[in-house]
From TrEMBL, chains A, B:
<dbReference type="InterPro" id="IPR000524">
    <property type="entry name" value="Tscrpt_reg_HTH_GntR"/>
</dbReference>
<dbReference type="InterPro" id="IPR036388">
    <property type="entry name" value="WH-like_DNA-bd_sf"/>
</dbReference>
<protein>
    <recommendedName>
        <fullName>HTH gntR-type domain-containing protein</fullName>
    </recommendedName>
</protein>
<dbReference type="GO" id="GO:0003700">
    <property type="term" value="F:DNA-binding transcription factor activity"/>
</dbReference>
<dbReference type="Pfam" id="PF00392">
    <property type="entry name" value="GntR"/>
</dbReference>
<dbReference type="GO" id="GO:0003677">
    <property type="term" value="F:DNA binding"/>
</dbReference>
<dbReference type="InterPro" id="IPR050679">
    <property type="entry name" value="Bact_HTH_transcr_reg"/>
</dbReference>
<keyword id="KW-0805">Transcription regulation</keyword>
<dbReference type="GO" id="GO:0045892">
    <property type="term" value="P:negative regulation of DNA-templated transcription"/>
</dbReference>
<feature type="domain" description="HTH gntR-type">
    <location>
        <begin position="9"/>
        <end position="76"/>
    </location>
</feature>
<keyword id="KW-0238">DNA-binding</keyword>
<keyword id="KW-0804">Transcription</keyword>
<dbReference type="InterPro" id="IPR036390">
    <property type="entry name" value="WH_DNA-bd_sf"/>
</dbReference>
Amino acid sequence: MTLDPDISTPLWRQLVDVLVARIEDGTYRKGGRLPSEVSLQQEFGVARGTVRHALQHLVAEGIAETTNGKGTYVRP
Amino acid sequence: MTLDPDISTPLWRQLVDVLVARIEDGTYRKGGRLPSEVSLQQEFGVARGTVRHALQHLVAEGIAETTNGKGTYVRP
DNA sequence: GGAAATTTGTACGTATGTATC
DNA sequence: GGATACATACGTACAAATTTC
């Protein structure tokens, strides 16, 4: 699964869509922890800031929660 | 009005407080446009990213709205 | 119509601080 | 103390939308 820098949809938006899809198909379980920012950065080949932008969007939408020092968790 | 990098409150948070105070005291009018990101960056001596962080917080709280190419407006 | 200026949006990189394990 | 993970803050560059001339 990769992101495409050549289409008009921003990378962070594409990443949101991938993460949401993975939550819905059970790849990431509700109540479970998402991969770390660095992990996602490496997997998708984007900057950490882009990963954070996507994650913060999930948080803003109430899909996830973030705790400093622990990680970002999918809301049950 | 300046921000203080030496206290624990993040700069973007301090900036939010200043902007909210200015909205409440009428310096920035409801329905009116806030100063541009570059203006705020210069006035407060912080990075544009810090200004954007503060503004996005206002948007998330429903205090302001942003339009690409136009500006950030205080909600009436 | 079109070029320039203004303003927000996206994306990158780096460094350091704070919290948790 | 060390390793891991998120948080803050700086800087840069270019894209996209709007306004102005």
